[in-house]
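User: My collaborator sent over this chain with a note saying "see what the structure looks like." That's all I know about it. Can you take a look?
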Amino acid sequence: MRLAIAAAACGAAAAVTRAALISITERSPGTGGSVKHARQGRLGLLGRFPATPAGAVAARQLTYWFKDPATVRGWS
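Assistant: Without extra context I'll predict from the sequence alone. Here is the result:
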């Protein structure tokens, strides 16, 4: 019985989290705040990843890794 309740609670938490993330990541840019536009040709890794929320996160994370001296030092 406890296992079923715990599983149901985890499933409900996962469903709420997924719905919130979808709501946040699929919001159109014009729905709030200001949108900054990048200059042509200066996108860096952002220009090499797909134009999706996941692509933006991946490009940002790799940019941080490449700029972090501790990470780069670990490669040598």
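A starting point for your reply to your collaborator: The longest helix spans residues 2-25.
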